[in-house]
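Notes from hallway chat w/ T.B., transcribed later so I don't forget. T.B. wanted the structure written out for a chain they're using in a teaching module, and asked if we could keep both sequence and structure tokens in one place. Agreed to drop them here.
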Amino acid sequence: MKHLPKHLRPRWRYLAVELRGAGELARDPFQRECWFAAQNLLGDVGSAALDLTVVDFAFGDGEGQAVVRVRRGETDRARAVLACLDAVDGMELGLRVRGVGGTVRACREKYL
């Protein structure tokens, strides 16, 4: 199967997210809660257009960071979805979007 030409490939933006909570947290429950929050806030069509994916995740000792991938042009709605998250698996969670980058590397170097 051939790759799509560059002008037809989806464009992505990456959100650097700072996490704080009291306990342990894994990537999969965080990803699931992001999807549920997007579906509850935007509906099925809106969450599919957003296409939230947790690309990079690290959490330990009550602090952590994540890089969340989102389609270009949807960063404002992605921030709104992340603002809706207050708990993951019963653990209260505080998060803050530190910035938006065009690549994972730039996002990590600049904001995390």
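Follow-up for T.B.: The chain has a mean pLDDT of 95. Might be a good example for the class.
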